[in-house]
């Protein structure tokens, strides 16, 4: 499979790059492993610091409020009983770690499946390597517009239809501070390096802009 290489102005350079079919050419992307990888990513982001007080942690008298039987209601003991208003919570949340283990081969297959799914949707564009001389949001917005990626909701003057913004993901081979600073104020645009690319970011974006060097890094990492 081959894709054309474009410059940052959205123009075809006339060059093409060959994509590794083992990474970008999976005919039936594995949806289950993609689900597991996304689930692990979101689970690892959870703080898990939730906590509610148990019966022994509530401040209050331990005097038994009523007799054991014959009161016409539930046995409730002291004022900290969970059946009373202001009492403790039964089986409340406690701090925990939501993370779980996932094999490296499974995560690698998930990323391959996600990239193959994006190729089928024509949502991957190869861009020649570039740099910004200075951090300018205007330059990054122009780059996205050159590839017909709207960053804000706009209304088409002719059809009167509302064009919703697309989530874009620019993948670089190494950190470029000026590029990152130019994109950080744009709500639906993200910039990552190839080593930080994961299944969640791939699937969450509507369009992937991958530089030539980043493409080589991705193929080396997933081979």
Give the helices and strands, then pairings.
Layout: E1 2-6, E2 12-18, H1 21-24, H2 31-45, H3 104-120, E3 124-127, H4 137-146, E4 154-155, E5 162-163, E6 168-172, H5 177-183, E7 189-193, H6 199-204, E8 207-211, H7 212-222
Parallel strand pairs: 1-3, 3-8, 6-7, 6-8
Antiparallel strand pairs: 1-2, 4-5
Helix pairs in contact: 2-3, 4-5
Structure description:
This protein has helices spanning 21-24, 31-45, 104-120, 137-146, 177-183, 199-204, 212-222; strands at 2-6, 12-18, 124-127, 154-155, 162-163, 168-172, 189-193, 207-211. By secondary structure, it is α/β, with parallel strands linked by helices. It has a domain at 2-29 and 103-222: Ribosomal protein L4/L1 (Ribosomal Protein L4, Chain: A). It has a 6-stranded mixed β-sheet with strand order 2-1-3-8-6-7. The chain has a two-stranded antiparallel ribbon with strand order 4-5. Helix 4 (137-146) packs across helix 5 (177-183). 21% of the residues are buried.
Report the helical percentage.
25-40%
* Total beta strand runs: 8
CATH superfamily of the domain at 2-29 and 103-222: Ribosomal protein L4/L1
Order of helices and strands: EEHHHEHEEEHEHEH
Unreliable stretches: none
CATH class of the domain at 2-29 and 103-222: Alpha Beta
The general outline is: elongated
Proportion of beta-strand residues: 15-25%
Describe the sheet with the most strands: 6 strands, mixed
Q: Quote the CATH topology of the domain at 2-29 and 103-222.
A: Ribosomal Protein L4, Chain: A
Radius of gyration: 27 Å
Mean pLDDT: 90
Structural class: alpha/beta
Strand order of the largest sheet: 2-1-3-8-6-7
